[in-house]
Amino acid sequence: MSKLDLTQYEKKMIVRNMQDKDIEQIFKLQKVCFPDMDPWKREHLESHLTHFAEGQFVVEFDGKIIGSCSSLIVNFDEYDDKHTWDDITDEGYITNHDPDGYNLYGIEVMVHPEYRGMKIGRRLYEARKELARALNLKSIIIGGRIPNYHKYEDEMSPREYVEEVRNQNIYDPVLTFQIMNGFTVMRINPDYLPDDEQSLKYATLMEWNNIDYRARTKRYFKTSHPVRIMVIQYMMKNIDSFEEFAKQCEYYVDVAADYGSDFAVFPEIFTTQLMSFLEEKVPSQAVRKLSAYTEEYIEMFTHLAVKYNVNIIGGSHFVEEEEQIYNISYLFRRDGTIEKQYKIHVTPNERTWWGIQPGDAVKVFDTDCGKIAIQICYDIQFPELARYAVDQGANIIFVPFCTDDRQGYLRVRYCAQARAVENQVYTVIAGTVGNLTQVENMDIQYAQSGIFTPSDFEFARDGIIGECNPNVETVVVGDVDLEILRRQRKSGTVRQLRDRRRDLFDLRFKLDTEEKPERT
């Protein structure tokens, strides 16, 4: 008898983190599990993966998704005792996920009916428990359905029903399972899930305590999380060499370091100052000569960021890639790493005089001061980009700009302040002043750089942390507080992020779903 190939008999059951490729199968699973409840939308699950991918699990059996669960981290003490599912999940998008929180909050568990009895739910709960242990979280909290309660509503109250289930006199497919998995009932919340007719909208708030939890003295509720920003209103004047340009840049980074700044922000295309000694009068050729300094520019700012321990928004610079010219802003982190953001919307002037090509990706960058985005000048005038960046976690949007007159400047300023209000985010604009009399298309500049906030009681009266005097070479230094921003997003007078009518409109960046190569 020949040796059996055992692989032909194998049917693998795998518990793993959810991936984008699983979303369509999860939609089908939800329709089978909860046919009478509102299903996930694609943007819900995409948001889960964006904000907390490690907290989303699926069970795959022989290549098919047969179970899934979703969760986020919260500081549960910050939520009302009678919170609803929408409150705790930001209407299913989990944008309120708090990586520094104490509690893992479970918001969904699904098991395909054909595979119940195979311990699928238990496997998902064990995955959550392992995650809670790995992240040293204090507990897991869930708002559990009581789907059999509708059968007993005329006989007993929700509390009495829960007691009967706990005493094993009544079987409830959800509550009984949760009790068997070590969860204890904290309380009963009414109106928890509006479309849960079987539970009559009630939910049992339950908790599993992590006995391996180790209290950390450095974990605490923050009263303040300031980030100091220095904005450079840069003077454009004739120079004779790159070394002279580098000395001016180092001077400002040194000043930023002296003030204890976390970020130093330079303006858009301020490197065009180098054109003053390039002796090229044709603008389309001048930008190509300018792009030859890209490596020196990158090496200089990388060195300065590390030397002075300051994250630098390096304004923007014209860069040649594959024979095309792009307007690119670089983030030089103080740990020596580098990121870049292409300008998405090219102005008619840039296209006509310099032949600038548009980028096609909105990025959000991790820094040691949280997530930030960069939107170059014209880009801040398109509200979709800021909304998308904030949905991806950005707390600060930096806007390097270059405008030649007051009207152009005011477009940038008004839009930056509008984005701050619309998205409950800080915006920072940094522009050029002075003139380059010998450089075609860069002869005059107008700017009044500043740091802006949302408009509410927590912030400065006019939503302005600081601003430069117009049209002079100077800097402005100000602190933005990320903790105040977090609180205002949760409980401000108005809450634009949470009060959006997602049932009527939403925003999706097309390249999230289309396969298109991204420049690097």
TrEMBL record:
Sorted UniProt keywords: Hydrolase
Domain CN hydrolase intervals: 227-482
Give the species.
Answer: Halobacillus aidingensis
Keyword Cytoplasm recorded: no
Q: What is this protein called?
A: Predicted amidohydrolase
Please list the residue ranges annotated as the N-acetyltransferase domain.
13-211
Q: Which PANTHER family match?
A: HYDROLASE YHCX (PTHR23088:SF50), NITRILASE-RELATED (PTHR23088)
Supply the PROSITE patterns for this chain.
CN_HYDROLASE, GNAT, UPF0012
Matching entries from Pfam families are given as: Acetyltransf_1, CN_hydrolase
**GO molecular function (one):** acyltransferase activity, transferring groups other than amino-acyl groups
What is the similarity comment for this entry?
A: Belongs to the carbon-nitrogen hydrolase superfamily. NIT1/NIT2 family.
**Which chain positions lie within coiled-coil regions?**
none
